[in-house]
Structure formats: structure tokens, C-alpha cells
Amino acid sequence: MILSPEKSTDTPVPDGHVRLTIDGQVVDAPKGELLIRTCERIGIVIPRFCDHPLLDPAGACRQCLVEVEMGGRPMPKPQASCTMTVADGMVVKTQNTSERADKAQQGVMELLLINHPLDCPICDKGGECPLQNQAMAHGRADSRFVERKRTFPKPLPISSQVLLDRERCVLCQRCTRFSEEIAGDPFIDLLERGANQQIGIAEDQPFQSYFSGNTIQICPVGALTSAAYRFRSRPFDLRSTPGTCEHCSSGCDMRTDSRRGTVLRRLAGNDPEVNEEWLCDKGRFAFRYLGSAGRITRPLVRRADGELAETSWTEALQIAAEGLTAARDGAGIGVLTGGRLTVEDAYAYAKFARLAARTNDIDFRSRPHSDEELEFLAAHVVGTAPDGVPGEAAVTFEKIENAPAVLTVGTDPEEESGIVFLRLRKAWRKKGLRHFQVAPFTSTGAEKTGATVLHAVPGAEAAVVAEPGADVTAALEQPGAVILVGDRAAESPGLYSAVSALAARTGASIGWLPRRAGDRGALEAGAVPTLLPGGRPVTDAAARAELERLWGSGPLPAEPGRDGDAILAAAAAGELAALVVGGVDPQDMADPQAAITALREVGFLVSLEMHTSAVTELADVVLPVAPDAQRSGTYVNWEGRHRPFGVALDATGVLPDCRVLDTLGVEMDTDLFTQTPAAAAGELARLGTRRAGTLAPAVAAGEAKRPGYGQAVLATSRQLVDDASLSIDEPALAGTARRPYVKLNAATAERLGLIEGEDAAVRTDRGTITLPVALADAPDGVVWLPTCSPGSHVRPTLGAGHGDLVGVVPATGNGSAS
Question: So what's the pLDDT on residue 105?
């Protein structure tokens, strides 16, 4: 609030505020606010390098000096406005009204430039560099220093994807503070002292963080650069497009920068409600799949010789329509979709299934899943949104940050939803959040959020959630408490039911945290066997009648359809004549071998895909679809918040799934009216939400299996940087992946004859995975493996999953089990 001088003494100071004068303006500011923030609010820009609104104050660069008076007495020296808080009666003069402050800022700039190299013509930061800009605005025209500038060998690799030019660094400490405060990865720090002080890493502790790319973006001088982007372009050569990250369900705001039809980099957008100003490294760097050698750009059909051959869209759609029409009139069609779909594309698949295929056999859950999960989603998730009415208001990032307690179940946020992890860490550091995590062992993410781990044997997590202890129950009974449950809960019978019961008992809010970007939108769009678009139950006659009227269709199928596993089983048994598959990796299914068999045995297979895959190798017709950079659409993030994005690259010759399905539907004499994402989104919005109002699931808690001699119970989950299909052609990102280990406790290792650091072989009748042993605080008889990391593809190799029994033995030097 700014007050005119003549009214300043007459207007009372609001509670919790102080009154001060800045450059002659009388201002009311909240107690404890930093002076530099108060200046920002009234439109006064003070130059700075170390200051960042999301980092703790440091006062490292001294560029933000201002003149301050207290009680009518000026302070003897200019003060750093980024560390000083406002006070009642304070009088502040910035560089705009004080020659002393202006001279001090110019002097600091001169000192900062003593050793700074003249790299502007080649520096990646040139054209968007705060140092460059502020040297012009607040620096002197010439320097009094003529000595030789200090030099270092360059660049110094901080990691495989972050490079350091030490002579450019002004020691603002933004990077070190981000690493320690925000990410909790203090691998980069200030080394040496005095004139030799510099940024660096310890020799035995490399900079290995899932969030390291943020240090590149917030570096104000181009000292930290991206190995993948370095020397590739200048900012004024780039075409920038706002976008939404496609890699997890957080729906992060970001910016895509391209040049000559190629994406060169991604930067975090500024969205305080979602990702603030941060991105995980996967979202920032994993985009080269757009131009990978496996991209499919032309339709393919299988010829008489059994080989796939390129053809025209007209022929491909005609062949697909003929095959699907025959299958629909015979044993029927099943529809399987993956996690890459926008809500518009998911709606097109849901509508295609009901109208063109005339079936409810559709499921987006191309991963282990259960009927209990569908009941849970219908009761607690579908139709909720951040702006919902009481009872339908979703858990949000803001609610996590302000929650007194959070229980996470079936998810490790750092590995599966990085921005949720950053909010949990922020809430723990700033507001004393009590974080409880149901898990087999204490992960690094749990340590960095101060979590109390409720150790659970795989398959028996429901019993832990049902009786979490008096301390946990009391914490969750506090107003604003939250339970976050991930999609891995589907692998543990009764776990979703236990979460529902615990929430009902304590009053805690439930948030569903799926791993994939398109899962929440697919649920809302009706890409499940039990729900129509908008959360309408397929068994509700009134809901079906409503859709029949809005769609102008005949009677919709009234019986719940098969889930993903049942669809594949029916296809393998000949009970379904065709499958339409969009963006599914069989390796992610509960039984990849059974999934591949079903795809091979089904009579007719149509694949809508971006890249060659196990599905396209078996398909009769392959219809290429556009990646995110070449389509527009909307993701619905885990909160239920809509996250739209536009076309970043030329989209000539590529089509989104909704357009392909619309044209395919026309060939089958069915109009979907999803020719464009905008048309699909508009129709879905007109349908609105009609919550099912179903009862919460009540499935009995599962029991842990008992390992025999030489056996252990398998726990498995994914790491953020792993062998994901959208992370291909990213060697720099892959270089920061956490090394896969076999993790178990010391007593179990001793019983099985394993030694820390040496290889162990985890095996079943199907295969063996051999990895080094690392000790963890897991329960006795439990062994953990990463699900999809180099050398550890659990389901395809072992044919086993979370909670199954596996054999564990020491491995010989050549990697085979002894």
C-alpha cells in the first residue's frame, strides 16, 4: 500500500504492518518483509545478483545497496536491501534518489567485473544476462583496473549435464543455496577462501541431483551452462512457446525454445500455484525423443509378405476401418491407452470405444492395476478440482505446503513426482511439516523431507495404513492434513481401502498422485471400463441417456467393461477380435510376456504411436501421432488442474490422436466430432462432471508372502531418471541417473550370504537380474530393485512384481548366479 505524504499521518497502520518511506513514497509493508521486496511491490527495481524470491537471503553480491535512515539518523554505510527487513519509520533512498547509493552500486559492479571475462559474444547467457543488463544500467563506462584477468581451465564438468566456467562466476551463491535449500542435494559448494574462492564439487561426491538444471537457469552470469545447449544458439534466435511438461502428473509450467524446427532447450515457467520456478531434470532435458531415429512419420500397413510398409493415410485408415468393423461385428474390440494422452485425446479414445467400437472395454492403466483402484478413484478422485465446491475441492500444491502433516502411500515423490517432493521439502523446512511415508526403506527423498518412515513389507502395506500408530493418527486429525496415495497402491490388495478408511477416521484430505502426465485426464475423460466421461457410471441409465442425447447416438453399452489385464487375456484367448492401442509399452504391464502374447495372438491390431515399439512391431496398421511439441492440448495434473499448451514446432503432416480417431471413426460410419483438440475440449466441457457418488472400496488387507530358504519378498519402484521411452537420446541426462542397487537390510544380507558392494543375483524361473548390494533399513526378508533402470527391468526379466517371492544369491564375477 502506498500513501500520499499528506495522508500518511492520518491513516492508521494496518495490523501486522509497518510504515516507512522509500524514495519519498510512504509505504505500508508487512512486518518481516525484505526491503528489496517492498521496493519491487511499488515498482522500484533495485539491481541484484544473489537475491532470488524463493531462496533464503544471503547478501553475497552487495549489488542491491541502498541508503537507509533509522530514527532520523543515516546508517554509516549503504545497506544490502536483500537482507534488511522493513521497520517502522525507516527512510530508504535507492539509486533513483541517492547519489551515495548509486555510487555504491557502481563501485560494486566495477569490482564484479575485475576478473569477469569478455565472453559475451560466445556466452550462452548473452542476450538474457542480468550481469550484462545491469552493467549497462548501473555500471560505469570504463574501469580503473588494467591488470590481467584471472583465468581457469574451462569448462569444468559439474556433472554430465552441467558445465562450469569459473572465471564468469560472481560468487552470488544462488546455485549452492538452491542445491542445499530447495533440492536438498548439497553437492556443489564454495571452495577455497579469499581471492581463491570458487564454486566446485568434492572429488568423491559428484553433483548428482534430479534438479540440477535449475542452477543453470537461475545463474545470473552464465557461469553454469547446459552441456546439451552450450554454443547451440543465442536467445534472440530462438522461438519461445509456453508449454506444459509431459513427463509426470505435476503439470509443470515451462517454456520450449526452438530454432529451425528443432527444440534446443526447455526452461521452467513461473507458476506459483504449481511448480513455482522449478523443473526436474527429466522435464528440462528429456525432449530429444522428438527427433529420434525411431519416430514414425508415415502410416504403416502389414503387407501379404508380413512386413510393415509405408502407405498413404487414405489406405491406412481404410484398412484399419475395415479390420475394426469386421472385429466389432464379430468378437469385439478392446481399447488400451497409455499415460501420454492429453485430456482431449483421452476423450476421443473414450468416445471411440463407446460409439465406434460399441464397447466399454477401455483402460488407460497400462501398468499394474485393480478393481479396487477404480472404486477408489470413483469415490475420491474423479470430478474433484482445485476450485471445487466443499466436498469436491481437491488437494493442491498449496494445501501440501500448508498442511500440518502429510502421509504418502504407494509413492516416493522425489522419484515419481519431483515438484511434489520440492513442496514437501519446502513445507518441512519452512513450516515444520510432519511427513510420514509408508515404504519398505528410507529413501533419499524421505530423508530430505524429514519423513518418518512406516516400514512395510511389500503386499502388506494396508495393515500399516490401517493401524499407523497413535502419533500418525493424531497428526492426521489436525485440520488441513493430507494423505497422498500413488498409483503403486494398486499392487497391494486392500491398500486403497485402508487409505479411504483412515481418511474417514481422521478427516484428512485424499490426493491421488499418479506417475504419468495423462492419467488424471484419462480418468476424467472416461477412458476406464466403469466410468463414462465426466465420472458418470456406465451402469447409470440416466447418465447413459444423457450422453446418448448429447452425442446423438444410439444406446450405449450398459455393462462395465474389462480392465486392461482382462482385455489382454480376452485377446489372447480369442474372445476379442481386435485391439486399438495408443501409447502403451507392454513392458510396463503387470505381465509383459502375457501382454506381448496377447498382442501377437489378437486377430487385428491397430497402433497409434509416435515411435517404433513392441506394439508397432506386431501391429497390422500403425497410425503415427504427433508429440507434444507438434500438437496443442491440455493435461489435467494430479490436482485436477487443467494445464493447456500450444504448438511449439511446425505441425505440418502430423496429427493428434483425437484427429486420427475422428477420421477413423468416419471410416467406420461414426462421427466423433473430435477433429481438433479444441473441439474435443469444448464438447467435454459442455458435458460437465457428474460424480459417481460411489462408496469407498472395502477390500480386505493383503498379507505378505513368507520367504523360504534363499528367498526374499520383492519390492520395486521406478527411479526418476531411468530407461523411460521418452528419455531416449539423452546421454547427458542418463549420466545423472542414480546407480541401481539390490537393497536389503544387513540381517537379510547375512542370511542370504551377500556382502555390501558385491554383486547379488535376484532370480525367478524366467530370468536373473544382477546388481551390487547396498544396505538399507528395509524389513527382514525384503529386497528392493529399481523397476526400469539399466540392468534392472524387473517385470520383463523376472516376470514378478511388488510383493512376489524371488530368489536371491551371491553372483559370480561374470554376473551369473552361483
Answer: 95
